[in-house]
Amino acid sequence: MHMQIKVVITDDHPLTMSGVEHILQPYPHIVITGQYTSGAALMEGLRLQQPDVLLLDIMLPDQSGKDLAEQISRTYPQIRILALTSLDSPHHVKGMMRRGCLGYLLKNTDQHTLITAIEQVYKGVEYIDPALKDQLLRHMLKGQKAESPDLVPVLTQREKEVLQMIVEEYTSQEIADKLFLSLRTVEGHRLSLLQKLDAKNTVGLVKIALQMRLVE
Asked: 76-93, pLDDT tens digit by residue?
């Protein structure tokens, strides 16, 4: 292959980063031109140089991958975004694809799938992890039922408690006091809930939680 694909990786887990690097090393036509651990660092890096393909984690510490994908596909429409995540629900796949991603891969994917995905999205072809295809198809056949088990995101017990209190209009500080948690921990749960439920803000979070019957 004569093409040279410039790839940037954005992920806050060093293990994922070095794992991807290790997989891509033997392929001379794929070159890593940047690695970033946060959304802010990525946006800063993109101002200087843009890759052909961006491997983007959905859950970054400072910004959700969904917002980033939307921002990047608007500002740099030529960059092909490939979501790389451990979130495997159709809800997230559709959310990322709607926001301008061209591909969606799971972090436990194999070498062959990763290379194929990068090559395909580079050519402008949509690529979804084969492990997710059946699930997506089942979900589409079922229609958009909110009760569809595939669609409802899995929340931890603590996230459910925090969500219930957000719906009851407690502030983050009040939630922290009542659950004996630090404010930072509560904010972390809040961010995780926004990402898992694909909500832009607290109002959206409450609305989706009630629609999906995740709270009383």
From this structure: 999 999 999 888 877 788
